[in-house]
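ARCHIVE CARD
Drawer: 12
Card no.: 0347
Subject: one protein chain, sequence and derived structure
Cross-reference: see card 0346
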Amino acid sequence: MDMAYNLLYRLIQLTIKIVLKINGTLNVYGRENVPEKGGVIVASNHISYLDPPLVGAVLPRIATFMARKGLFEVPVLKWMITRAAFPVDRENPKPSSIKDAVRRLKRGEVLVLFPEGKRSETGDLQEAKRGVDVIAKMSKAAIVPTLLVGSDKALPSGAKWLKRAEISVVFGKPIYYNAQDDSYGPGGQMKDHVGSTIMHAIGELKKEYENSNM
């Protein structure tokens, strides 16, 4: 990525963080859990349209996003997100989208994705779509489970502007691919169900968050 884009990305990051802090509270935990180098999948729960820019704003590294293809059909949005995202049909991911994601990860990029595929209307965690399993297994990239709290209060469904809210982003410890048994994590627990185990990890972060003084 060129220097001008990097500078613009960091400026947008700063702007988003300032807006969210002025609008309420923005807490970020576990930034040190995001590996400094190499391909990384940042896998987060999804509760608001605010989630993609929120995660991008607080990550210590520049990220790429998998965005639903409909966003690329809106002229202004297409111009804004083309450099930072690539389109995907969340209901029927095409091989080209999967290959693009894997290629970016193998180049050492950070890829933000939402395994549930769509926003949770209730805030409860949903089942992961199959695509995350394929991307993880093909790329063998480190996976950082990520919990978002409060973004649904800051930008509820149907809202036209931000509402005051406390927002928290929690990055969990990375889960690494184990070449010895062709799986993620100790004991091969992610060999066949990467997506479900990611959601379980996010669920554990949620329990920890709710039971702690973060």
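Annotation on reverse: Residues 28 and 169 are 5 Å apart (CA to CA). The longest helix spans residues 3-23.
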